[in-house]
Write a structure and sequence with these properties.
By secondary structure, the protein is of the alpha+beta class. The chain has 22 helices and eleven strands. It holds the Pfam family Acyl-CoA_dh_1.
């Protein structure tokens, strides 16, 4: 026992002396790596956002080819610099200070104030001054005015704090008013929607979705419009999802009530109405109550609310029963805006990932020097380039139609490609942005970097303005209503895009791939047209994907044939065309659309456990 005690004391004494020596050395040494706060001296450099216009080679090349105007280049370069120097921080503030709803004032009066950040308000002023809606209506650059406008929105979108959403609806509302006719009572509204003056500029909401349905407005709309003696209406109903609820006005659908209080069911009973959002002398909203703000996965910067319409004053814009037809132009505009935001999100995450690759060192060298990492970024780049060219071509077609220079083929293409570009780029954005976050490692998952918000906001792009399946069915309706003319226009123009590549041997694999895919798609259409509606519906999604991939391949080839194209343009076209361009034919050959497959799909999805051992609760 005494020996054990001696050893223990010796050990404790030795340990104490050792600890004292260590403390002495630590305190005496200033050059240790973990001195001071003891957290180390290394801090990873953050990715730096640079002028998005200056950094985007494809955007600049596209404009040099199609719109070589120095005024536009100067405007976009200056705007890009402002985005970096101040606007991007505004967008971040919108994310960190989302809107909140104040139902009552301190004395108990109902006020329903949606409180937004100061940066959200700055975005409105900026949008007016920069002409982010106005450019499309001033038409200073003729049929290319829409391309100019959308290029500017493409730069703005990732830094906008989601303000591009109210701009999309504002643009859509202006388009509807213009198509119906700019006259009383919406003449003043149109002037404000398209103004460059911040104190005049208005934004518009879009109040369509109700509890019963989203895209199925024909059967889901319950709101009624009660006629008034002065020719106006009062709206009564509940709007389940209203975007940019702090807007100055809105367009909405409702059913006109006849003298006996009855309404017409279905789409034929819907009319389009215009309403201003205003307050009475008591400070309360006129005919309107904000029930709550939506708690969303992303797009938190923008107020989205459930609204009770309780006698909201409104004016009917469309002919009675022509509401759905009247919003067709609005859907074209908002779907194009959606696609612009998708391509912009891809470009932004890739721009940041590219910068980060030159700053981050792992396993002894920069990420940019690791072939596998660069290969991943290259695949993202190919997707982003394809999305950009597809969106811009639809913008070109819109500009031609608005300028009166569109051919019948152009009009057919615009109708077909609008749902195609929206559904395809929406899916691309989620995949590319997700891959982009991964390229930052764990930091891509940290909210305070701002990177996860890009992915959360991207997820809405495949949902808003029609999900992928809804838009795929819209493609089928488009084909049926045109008696196939839209497909004839598609095939004709796609082949014409390939014609210029005949003298470019370097592009021959891509040309061969697209040409073969066109032939396969033509054959599919012939076979499918004799199989009935169920067969085509089963193939609708794959058909839409095939239309997007083939057409995008042709656009990339066409861009690579331009006299100032680079070897990178050629390589991008080749890489895009390596994938399965005609997915619908591949699936058809495997029998995926045959009569038995829906039953098998249902059995797979809804399989229930077979009889066997039961749990104690059973």
């Amino acid at each position: 026992s005494s020996a054990v005690n001696f050893v223990s004391e010796l050990y404790l004494s030795s340990e104490a002396g050792s600890r004292s020596d260590e403390d002495h050395v630590w305190e005496a040494t200033d050059s240790l790596t973990f001195s001071g706060a003891r957290i180390g001296s290394f801090f990873q450099e953050r990715p730096v956002l640079k002028n998005p216009f200056v950094e985007d080679a494809l955007l600049r090349g596209y404009l040099r080819r199609h719109l070589p105007n120095q005024e536009i280049f100067s405007d976009l370069a200056a705007f890009g610099e402002r985005l970096v120097s101040e606007v991007d921080e505004w967008g971040r503030e919108c994310e960190l200070n989302p809107p909140r709803l104040v139902h009552f004032d301190p004395w108990g009066r109902r006020v329903d104030h949606i409180v937004t950040s100061s940066s959200w308000k700055r975005m409105k002023d900026l949008s007016a001054r920069e002409g982010l809606v106005a450019i499309g209506y001033e038409r200073a650059f003729g049929e290319w005015s829409r391309v100019y406008q959308m290029c500017k929105l493409y730069l703005f979108s990732p830094s906008s704090g989601l303000y591009t959403c109210p701009l999309a609806m504002t643009d859509g509302a202006a388009k509807v008013i213009q198509s119906i006719g700019v006259s009383s009572p919406v003449e003043e509204a149109y002037r404000r929607l398209t103004s460059r003056q911040p104190d005049v500029f208005w934004t518009s909401g879009q109040w369509m979705t109700e509890r019963r349905g989203g895209s199925d407005v024909g059967h889901g709309t319950e709101t009624v419009a009660v006629p008034q003696r002065d020719g106006s209406y009062k709206l009564h109903g509940f709007k389940w999802f209203t975007s940019a609820t702090d807007a100055d006005m809105t367009l909405t659908l409702a059913r006109v009530q006849d003298g006996s209080g009855e309404t017409t069911p279905g789409s034929k009973g819907l009319s389009l109405f215009y309403a201003e959002v205003s307050r009475g002398q008591d400070g309360r909203l006129r005919g309107l109550e904000v029930q709550r703000l939506k708690d969303k996965l992303g797009t938190r910067q923008m107020p989205t609310a459930e609204l009770l319409l309780d006698g909201l004053p409104a004016f009917r814009l469309s002919e009675e029963g022509r509401g759905v037809a009247s919003i067709a132009n609005m859907l074209t505009i908002t779907r194009i805006h959606n696609s612009i935001s998708a391509a912009a999100a891809m470009r932004r995450v890739l721009q940041l990932a590219r910068d980060y690759a030159a700053r981050r060192t792992v396993f002894g060298k920069h990420l940019k020097d690791h072939p596998l990492h660069v290969q991943t970024l290259a695949r993202m780049e190919v997707e982003t380039r394809g999305a950009f060219l597809l969106v811009m071509d639809v913008c070109r077609l819109l500009g031609c139609e608005e300028n009166g220079s569109a051919s019948r083929q152009d009009s057919h293409l615009l109708r077909l490609l609008t749902p195609v570009v929206k559904l395809y780029t929406g899916k691309q954005a989620v995949a590319v942005v997700s891959e982009g976050l991964e390229s930052f490692g764990g930091q891509g998952y940290m909210e305070d970097t701002g990177l996860p918000g890009i992915l959360r906001d991207a997820q809405v792009l495949s949902i808003w303005e029609g999900t992928t399946n809804v838009l795929s069915l819209d493609v089928l309706r488009c084909v049926a209503r045109s008696s196939g003319m839209v497909l004839q226009a598609y095939f004709s123009h796609t082949k014409s895009l390939l014609a210029g590549a005949s003298s470019f041997s370097s592009l021959s694999p891509a040309v061969k791939a697209v040409d073969g895919a066109v032939s396969d798609l033509e054959e599919f259409i012939k076979v499918a047209s004799s199989r009935g509606a169920d067969y085509m519906e089963a193939a609708a999604r794959d058909l839409a994907y095939s239309l997007a991939r083939i057409y995008t391949g042709a656009l990339l080839i066409d861009q690579a044939c331009w006299k100032e194209a680079s070897s990178v343009d050629v390589y991008a076209a080749l890489r895009w065309c390596e994938q399965d361009l005609c997915l619908v034919t591949t699936k058809q050959r495997r029998g995926h659309y045959d009569a038995g497959f829906p039953t098998l799909d249902a059995a797979l999805v809804f399989e229930r456990p077979t009889q066997g051992w039961r749990t104690a609760k059973e």
